[in-house]
Sequence to fold (435 residues):
Amino acid sequence: MTHPATTSHGRSLAIPPQHQPPSRQAPAPHTAGRPEVDPARWPDLAGPPPAGLVRTALARHLVGRALERLALTRPGRTTGPALTLHDPDAFHRRIGRDGLIGFGESYMAGEWDSDDLAGALTVLAEHVDELVPAPLRRLRGMWVSRRPSADRNTRAGARDNIQRHYDLSNDLFSAFLDPTLTYSSAVFTDLPARFETLAPAQHRKIDRLLDLARVGDGTRLLEIGTGWGELALRAAARGAHVTTLTLSAEQAALARERIAAAGLADRVDVQLRDYRDAEGRHDAVISVEMIEAVGAEYWPSYFTALRRALAPGGRIALQSITMGHQQMLHTAATHTFISKYVFPGGLIPSREAIARHSAAAGLHTAADDGYGAHYAETLRLWRERFTANRPAVTALGFDTVFQRMWEFYLAYSEAGFRSGYLDVRQLLLTEGTRP
Fold:
């Protein structure tokens, strides 16, 4: 499952303080209710948002009308999610200034809350095309800014982008992931997952991918995107010889520890290496939710690398989050809340984009299976675990603003899958036109 080097207004932040390793941070003091905002760590949240009278008035009119129509802020509401504005003026100013980025930042600053955050965001996602009247959509450029050029996924840029998310702290991810430390969609036996924990559901997902790629005894497997090593562990236990690539030093270190502890170090080689520098030919290639971090500019390089790594007759198992093609085109040119605070340089592809770029690299899509509802359930369980473990997250040095940002990210993502705006696919790619 990207944090920019500049703010939405282009001011250089180099490495933002909120993304430094926790040992270098001290939690900012906060009081009950709205969090105290440290201006050094959260420069775009500190102080009252600048007033743009026309844009704020327009935001107040459009957002207020939308929330009223969807009944999210109706007084005395007894059913469904509710959205409570603690500081309506700041809320509308932020949206007037920065659109959806401002909406998320307003939550981070404690200017609004919800008794069911994922539910409220799902309602908004389900009606996203209705929130702004069609004639006013042409003014979209007033509320969006372009992605910072520093977020491009050059070799150096990709390392920075990956490290700014995945190297935050292994302990942070342990606070909400299950013991397998798998940071991608699980596959459950039934929905909602009332009687199944995440670990077996994650193993089911991994096994489906291994089966799709026909990984077994003696298979030479290349994994692009190690995570914390669970797929490599499971493949090695089948007798495969695994080379797995990551750009995250934190992930690589812990993955090696886990692999050694399982007695499989002779079967798994964890390399701190860019996918563009993959070496050798392999019977199978697996990449799980890695393409989202590649960036549209480099999708041709990504699929070319997959194809180049494949031995004759080999198989590629790819798991990817997807969105609609038109939504992808809009998002590709836009700096979003997720690209600013969570995944810098990232972009979720459409199925059309995957098909086009993989075909251009000489690959055929032999299977394509979606299961977005399972990702919504995975994110719900992550979010609930994160909320329950907030004291541990605080002890790691992540302040209340960060915690509200992370909760918003998980709920925002869950809403995307619950509304059908997002999907997740498992694909089988083979050489040429034969499966």
